[in-house]
Structure prediction request, 574 residues.
Amino acid sequence: MTIATLTKPWEAMSYGFLDASAKRELRRKMLKAIAVPGCQMPYASREVPMARGWGTGGLQVTLTLLRPSSVVKVIDQGADDSVNAASIRSFLSKVSGARETWDTLEATIIQSRHRIPEERLRADQVLVLQVPNPEPLRPVEPNMSVARQMHADADYGRLWLILYEQIVRSGRVMQGAAYPSLVNGRHVMTPSPIPRWDVPKLHMAQHLTFLSAGREKRLYAVPPFTRVEPLVFSDVPFQVEDHAALTCHRSGLTGYFMNEIPQGGGGSQFELSDSNLGIKAIRQAEGAEARVGSTWYENGKMPQ
Amino acid sequence: MIATAPPLALQAPQLMTTPPLLTMTGVSRRYGDVVALRDVSATVYPGEVLGIVGESGSGKSTLLRMMNLEDMPDAGDYRLALPDLPGNLFDLDRFARRMLCATRIGIVYQNPHLGLLMKHTSSGNVAERLLIAGERSFAALRGRAREALDASEFPLDRMDARPLELSGGMQQRVQLAKAIALEPVLLLLDEPTTGLDVSVQALVLDTLKRLQRDRAMTIVIVSHDLGVIRTMADRVMVMRRGRVVEQGLADQIFQDPQHDYTQQLVHAKL
Prediction:
């Protein structure tokens, strides 16, 4: 018997880039995160060939979930074709053999920064959000040990204090992204950095969502069919961005979250933030074959 | 013979016939080799102002911190006459302790940095108390914060200024508003006017007196300033080296001090 018969042949890297022990640790933490929805789980956060702050948290979760039959979509600010999205996607497919896609309906794993796709996600899809700052209490409690104790006590009064002061100062809630939300009636999480528009999509959703912060070494999850309620005052209702009436100047679609594009004359035009939805709409209008799924928002309204 | 009530002078004073609001017995606390409190007992009756005087390091602030459940003693028993919390309050868990402190006990610290969130607005500081108690209506928060600030004679046009931008006297008023916002059964004042100049001190004391009169509040006030204690307190406890050396009605202590240390204290002042 020789050593060679007992060992595997040499490979440049393990499957899915991360070594087996790193993936095992991540899987354990992901299962814990699912078991306690919205609760932040610490994890080791390994080195990946990308700088901290560029989506390393999301990348590690995605690498752990990938298999050769996966279809992977990566979104950066709603777009599939930005440099960051394109290079993360090609890295994922290179280390795992997974197929790349831009289409939300086709993907099995969607890694995203800033947006949840406008098309409804199904039970067989997993959404992985890259999170820069996982701690909703950071603006009110700089000491993270104390913040953890506040989570344990469900001591969230001060988060309403932030909203209170925004209303006092500006007449309305100004929190744009990272709107603090109560998950499963117990833990407040920051669904950062998605806009308010996307927060209702997480409520009782069919799909599983992971939120992972690589630099802060924390991950948390929203399992399927879990309540996600944005924090509100009883007399000041939660409002999403006022985009329902805006029309995309390229695809002609109305009633979705838009990017504002300032024009020379001082005015502005709008274009769909979810670029793949726009592309499919344009293709459909040109008579090409493109399937657009049902969307969360219908005519600019989220059905109750 | 006609049965008559005993003459007035022989009736027990009303204070003695009502059960005490606060009872502390046998509280001791050491910090390493330093003994901060040795077997201290205290009683406070509803509607009464108890003054605690003593030099620095006499244990008076430690005692007040224990009353606010911020610090646990090595031994001792602490009860408030609350129907829902009959047992020793030192045995409560952290969660119940926090709820009790937030909703039933108000405190004003000497250093406003301890009691206030300096980066948040003054009205927000008061609203935070209400939020902990579960108030979730913006209009109600705003209204009740305004009421509490008004009651502590804080100028309402500055209610959305941050405490950092306010003068010392104003900061103390914000602390006071925060303390009384939930109408606590017990108000603790830890050197509330130390560090303020004499005229501001007088104004803050005025406010405190008026609040005490209007709301019949039960107050424990700690100070090393006999003038403050004389203005505020009905009853006085003199502490030295972690022990209570003398206690009695305020007039009695100031006019006829019995203990050597109290005599020195009263004479040093006059």
Summary: Chain B touches chain A through 20 residues (CB under 8 Å). Chain B has a mean pLDDT of 88.
